């Protein structure tokens, strides 16, 4: 007996032949229309009206590249910080007061007096100095009505009018943060009496300076009158 026919294999071969015929043939719908007098490789965009294609094309301006910020300013954060500090502290007094390079700088353990622009003032022992550029701040501690009060003040804050050193610590503190002074046995208590004494001395010095200025001005006037 002969082997049975394989209809599926015959169908596959017929489909392959049909695909091959489609690539070689083209239907009427997809065929490009042929117009007499027009080249075969014609494209509508190739029509140029009046001028040649080279003259009709517009020249696109090419600008030079923008210089990189790395070449002009290698550290922009430091530059911005320096400009802000120069604006908030034009004299540089506060920067020198807390600079590590200054010998007479304020250290932890000193009694500092902070005067605000609204007329208020606060004095206390400096427990910590946070040096972080424009965000530099100091932590002051004082006792008000026998209650310990700590205040953070920004050095370059526009609300701060001035910072003065009332009294310096006798010995240099071995720590940068004197948080142990919060304990009762190390707490020095209120510093109001020390601040009052400091303000009296400042007032006496100012009055003596004013008197000396007045005396010098009077002498100059008398000398001018005598010469005339």
TrEMBL record:
Compositionally skewed regions (Basic residues) per UniProt: 218-228
SUPFAM superfamilies, sorted: Translation proteins SH3-like domain (SSF50104)
GO cellular component annotations of the record: mitochondrial large ribosomal subunit
Cross-referenced Pfam families: Ribosomal_L19
Keywords recorded for this protein, A-Z: Ribonucleoprotein, Ribosomal protein
UniProt-recorded Gene Ontology molecular function terms: structural constituent of ribosome
Biased composition range(s): Basic and acidic residues: 208-217
Region Disordered: start-end pairs: 205-228
Keyword Ribonucleoprotein: yes
BP GO terms, sorted: translation
Family: Belongs to the bacterial ribosomal protein bL19 family.
Protein name, as recorded: Mitochondrial ribosomal protein-like protein
Protein's organism: Aureobasidium pullulans
């Amino acid at each position: 007996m002969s082997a049975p026919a394989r209809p599926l294999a015959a169908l596959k071969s017929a489909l392959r032949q049909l695909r091959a015929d489609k690539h070689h043939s083209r239907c009427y719908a997809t065929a490009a229309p042929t117009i007499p007098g027009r080249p075969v490789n014609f494209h509508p965009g190739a029509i140029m009206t009046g001028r040649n294609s080279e003259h009709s094309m517009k020249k696109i301006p090419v600008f030079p590249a923008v210089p990189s910020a790395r070449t002009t300013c290698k550290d922009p954060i430091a530059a911005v910080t320096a400009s802000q500090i120069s604006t908030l502290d034009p004299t540089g007094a506060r920067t020198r007061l807390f600079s590590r390079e200054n010998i007479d700088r304020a250290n932890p353990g000193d009694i500092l007096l902070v005067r605000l622009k609204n007329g208020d003032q606060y004095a206390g022992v400096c427990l910590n100095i946070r040096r972080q550029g424009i965000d530099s701040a100091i932590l002051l501690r004082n006792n008000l009505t026998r209650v310990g009060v700590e205040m953070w003040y920004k050095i370059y804050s526009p609300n701060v009018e001035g910072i003065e050193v009332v009294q310096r610590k006798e010995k240099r503190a071995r720590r940068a943060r004197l948080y142990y002074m919060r304990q009762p046995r190390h707490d020095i208590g209120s510093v109001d009496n020390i601040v009052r004494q400091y303000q009296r001395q400042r007032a006496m010095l100012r009055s003596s300076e004013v008197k000396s200025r007045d005396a010098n001005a009077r002498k100059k006037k008398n000398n001018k009158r005598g010469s005339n």
